[in-house]
Amino acid sequence: MVTPGLVVQGQAAPFSTALRSLVNNPWYSDVRFVVGQEQQEVFAHRCLLACRCKFFQRLLGTEPGPGVTSPVVLSTVPAEAFLAVLEFLYTNSVKLHRHSVLEVLTAAVEYGLEELRELCLEFVVKVLDVELVCEALQVAVTFGLGPLQEQCMAFIETHCQEALRTRGFLELSAAALLPLLRSDKLCVDEAELVQAARSWARVGAAVLERPVAEVAAPVVRELRLALLAPTELSALEEQNRQEPFIPVEQIVEAWKCHALRRGAAARGAPCHRRRGTLPRDHHCFLDHPF
């Protein structure tokens, strides 16, 4: 009877350290990458990448012939994030940083590295703050990362005024901004939210070279103009004449709420008060307080 063998384990730390020393090391390297907008040259080892990641297995294909030195160009991933991916593939561990974790997360999703994706998600939640949260929300919406989107939404709802002033908010896509504007739990007054949405649309208009109203169209219906006082609504209407942002019919619907003193009377005009809505005299006539 053959005695079964016994698998014994050596120390993991020296093994990991040795493999980490091969990250971006030309020693025995048989594949080169040119990475990011900075076009940084990165050295790697074909067999290790192929056995650890199906994306690289498909990308690298068969063994190169003699004298093949053409680099693989990956222009969309920043060099720092790509090196973090390599570190994980070589050692099954990675050092993450707040300023680059979303780029590493993006690469992990695109390369199909589920374990690295989960490590990044855990790290993002731990370091989430006002400056990072809108950028994280955008990544979550782009890649359908539901739990991260929920975490970001909850954070923004609580810290809304601060988040609205960040660059990340101004750079949100319409798809990422839409669920925010639909939330009843935002701790911000509607007047401030309207101005923040206008600033967002202005930035998008400048980048896309399109009219402000056209950029705002997918999201502007979620602004609850009926919550504004008549003086605020008049000022908004005048500003809207000078710089079209909100459809005229939407402002008319808000005026109907004031004229009829009943929120449900203006069909299509959202009247629900948010968590941060400041009280105004006419709110007692609106249906469905927060």
List keywords for this structure.
290 residues, 3-stranded mixed β-sheet, 15 helices, 53% helix, 4% strand
Summarize the structure in short.
The protein has 290 residues and is mainly α. It contains 15 helices and three strands.
- Which strand order does the major sheet show? 2-1-3
Terminal residue distance: 76 Å
Low-confidence runs: 265-269
Strand content: under 5%
Number of E-state strands: 3
Give a quick account of the main beta sheet: strands, pairing sense, barrel closure: 3 strands, mixed
What is the count of DSSP helices, taking H or I runs of 4+ residues? 15
Shape annotation: elongated
Helix content: 40-55%
Fold topology:
Layout (H helix, E strand, L loop, with lengths): L11 H9 L10 E5 L4 E5 L1 H7 L1 H7 L11 E3 L4 H13 L9 H10 L3 H14 L2 H14 L2 H13 L1 H4 L3 H4 L3 H8 L8 H19 L3 H5 L13 H13 L5 H13 L30
Parallel strand pairs: 1-3
Antiparallel strand pairs: 1-2
Helix pairs in contact: 2-3, 4-5, 5-6, 5-7, 7-8, 14-15
Description:
The protein has 290 residues and is mostly helical. It contains 15 helices and 3 strands. It has helices at residues 12-20, 46-52, 54-60, 79-91, 101-110, 114-127, 130-143, 146-158, 160-163, 167-170, 174-181, 190-208, 212-216, 230-242, 248-260; strands spanning 31-35, 40-44, 72-74. It has a 3-stranded mixed β-sheet. Helix 2 crosses helix 3, helix 4 crosses helix 5 (101-110) and helix 14 (230-242) packs antiparallel against helix 15. The chain is elongated, with a radius of gyration of 26 Å.
